[in-house]
Inverse folding.
């Protein structure tokens, strides 16, 4: 694929609660082996979990930076408590790293400081992107729900902003004040005993007809299907998207990153890449429906007619 | 406290005004508002007539333009804002930053309210919208406890409006793509959640199965009343159990907490239900108005009457009470 600017890969924050050592070792291996350009780290889903990774945070940052990766610190997706706001404010004051905003409160705090926008902020159109860029946003990861037609429109208006799309991972679909994960195990949020730790790739939610449907991750609900835009990378690059986000699942993310890099570099073709990805993450079917303005759960196979619908 | 009432039709609008609403909120008949249901909402002419009627009775009109603008089609939302301003709307209820920026710049005199769909759930977020767009009121997400609301009220520079009665979102509003995952249509982009166009009921043995798109949302044994398959109010299989994973089919009712809400600094109480008929609107609005005008010790029978009007007659105080979490 022809490209004037280099494409890059971003590893998103681990949304799930992994054991601290697993979380540390995962990032060490990413640092040593994965062809990603930047890594977003830090608890994003539930402030109660934050203490788990704290003992390892400095080591992980150091290892990633020594390997030449840019480190970005994530912030919470839903901020309701005083201590949560305070924590973001402190991070903004003392951190030498870029912060990623996932909630309106972080946008407020990060005004005029360089920062990035995560996929959980509602950027549906160019005027919103313009507003965020004017306040200091350097890279914007567009929401997974956004169809390609919208991505194209937004990116075309701002060739100078680095736009990113959610290219791999179970889709973050909803977040609640209530913890369905804890409730499903007979607990409530305020006394949850961190039962979400038992499900490092989410707790499956099936329909009463046993269809795989969603997964619970604490207060977050993610899709059962795994979004993959591996087969759409060429269209996205042509449209001007320069960065692709890989959202960690409980699988070999180094291999997932290498595969995306290989398809971007045209070493592996898209169809072959998709087939390989299905093996690398067999726990869930792949989906790309949102990209095609259809149900997020569906997979749209590329055909001649589909390509014809999007002239270069 | 003001009473803010829903109207999905001009008839419901008139009923709400006559029943004593302080303000009525409504939207245009298109994708610009979050209740974009068939047969609902207002043409420009209907809104003109309704606003005129409301003004004669001293009632305000709030126009909801609370979906997110589709990239490349922003003119639809800009036109909606221009028309609502020209028709004399007392406030616009907005969720999209791009649209807020447009309205704040083009119509600096227009009152701007932050929709619940904007998900402004803390003082930093709310003050950001006040500073950036001169927002004068925020409709708070249904993810907060009354203690949270009281704390927020002390730290923000605008008024607070809260939902007290009607449908209940379990998820943070404006941040939920569950519906589009199953149907391709979402509240944020299309103004619909779990749309009727994608709902199917079928018989399976003795059970009635409700489906949304390709997914089963509930199964009702013979004799159990079947509800509408709103995605987050379905029954699902999780681990070894099955049941209402996110929320039972209940509706919100915090009218029992009027004094606590007042003490928390709440300026306005909002009733959900633009999709409800005019008889429901009339009954709910007049009963709530009577409750608001009664001393606390005289409210009980009025609140009981309200409860009997709730969806399935089962209610919850939702996130307003901490144990709900």
């Amino acid at each position: 694929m022809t490209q004037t600017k280099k494409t890059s890969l971003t590893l998103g924050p681990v949304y799930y609660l992994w054991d601290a050592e697993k979380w540390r070792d995962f990032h060490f291996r990413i640092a040593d082996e994965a062809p990603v350009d930047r890594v977003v780290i830090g608890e994003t889903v539930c402030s109660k979990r934050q203490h788990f990774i704290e003992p390892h945070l400095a080591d992980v940052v150091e290892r990633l930076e020594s390997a030449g990766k840019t480190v970005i610190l994530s912030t919470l997706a839903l901020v309701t408590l005083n201590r949560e706001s305070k924590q973001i404010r402190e991070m903004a004051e003392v951190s030498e790293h870029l912060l990623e905003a996932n909630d309106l409160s972080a946008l407020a705090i990060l005004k005029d400081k360089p920062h990035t926008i995560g996929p959980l902020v509602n950027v549906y159109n160019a005027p919103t992107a313009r507003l965020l860029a004017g306040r200091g946003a350097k890279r914007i990861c567009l929401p997974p729900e956004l169809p390609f037609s919208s991505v194209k429109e937004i990116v075309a208006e701002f060739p100078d902003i680095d736009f990113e799309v959610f290219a791999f991972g179970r889709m973050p679909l909803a977040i609640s004040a209530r913890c369905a994960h804890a409730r499903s195990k007979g607990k409530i949020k305020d006394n949850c005993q961190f039962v979400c730790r038992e499900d490092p790739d989410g707790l499956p939610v099936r329909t009463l007809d046993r269809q795989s449907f969603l997964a619970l991750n604490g207060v977050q609900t993610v899709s059962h299907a795994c979004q993959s835009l591996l087969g759409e990378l060429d269209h996205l690059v042509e449209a001007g998207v320069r960065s692709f986000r890989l959202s960690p699942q409980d699988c070999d993310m180094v291999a997932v990153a290498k595969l995306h890099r290989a398809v971007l570099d045209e070493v592996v073709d898209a169809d072959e890449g998709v087939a390989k990805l299905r093996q690398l993450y067999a726990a869930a079917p792949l989906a790309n429906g949102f990209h095609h303005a259809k149900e997020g759960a569906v997979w749209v196979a590329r055909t001649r007619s589909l390509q014809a619908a999007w002239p270069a | 406290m003001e009473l803010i009432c829903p109207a999905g039709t001009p008839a419901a609008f008139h009923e709400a005004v006559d029943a004593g609403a302080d303000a009525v909120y409504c939207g245009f008949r298109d994708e610009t508002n979050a209740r974009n249901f068939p047969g609902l909402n207002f043409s420009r002419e209907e809104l003109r007539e309704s606003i005129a009627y409301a003004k004669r009775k001293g009632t305000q009109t709030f126009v909801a333009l609370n979906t997110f603008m589709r990239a490349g089609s922003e003119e639809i939302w800009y036109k909606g804002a221009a028309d609502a301003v020209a028709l004399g709307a007392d406030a616009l209820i907005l969720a999209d930053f791009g649209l807020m920026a447009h309205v704040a710049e083009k119509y600096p005199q227009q009152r701007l309210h932050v929709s619940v769909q904007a998900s402004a759930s803390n003082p930093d977020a709310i003050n950001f919208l006040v500073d950036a767009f001169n927002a004068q009121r925020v409709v708070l997400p249904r993810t907060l406890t009354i203690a949270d609301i009281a704390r927020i009220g002390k730290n923000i520079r605008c008024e607070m409006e809260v939902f007290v009665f009607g449908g209940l979102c379990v998820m943070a509003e404006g941040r939920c793509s569950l519906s589009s995952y199953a149907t391709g249509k979402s509240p944020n982009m299309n103004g619909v959640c779990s749309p009727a166009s994608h709902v199917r009921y079928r018989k399976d043995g003795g059970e009635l199965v409700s489906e949304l798109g390709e997914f089963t949302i509930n199964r009702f044994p013979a004799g159990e009343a079947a509800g509408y398959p709103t995605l987050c109010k379905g029954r699902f299989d999780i681990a070894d159990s099955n049941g209402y994973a996110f929320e039972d089919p209940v509706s919100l009712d915090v009218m029992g907490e009027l004094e606590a809400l007042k003490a928390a600094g709440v300026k306005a109480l909002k009733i959900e239900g633009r999709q409800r008929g005019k008889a429901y609107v009339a009954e709910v609005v007049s009963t709530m108005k009577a409750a608001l005008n009664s001393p606390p010790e005289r409210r009980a029978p009025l609140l009981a009457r309200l409860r009997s009007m709730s969806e399935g007659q089962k209610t919850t105080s939702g996130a307003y009470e901490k144990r709900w979490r």
Notes: The first strand of chain B starts at residue 2 and ends at 6. The two ends of chain B are 27 Å apart (CA to CA). The mean pLDDT of chain B is 93.
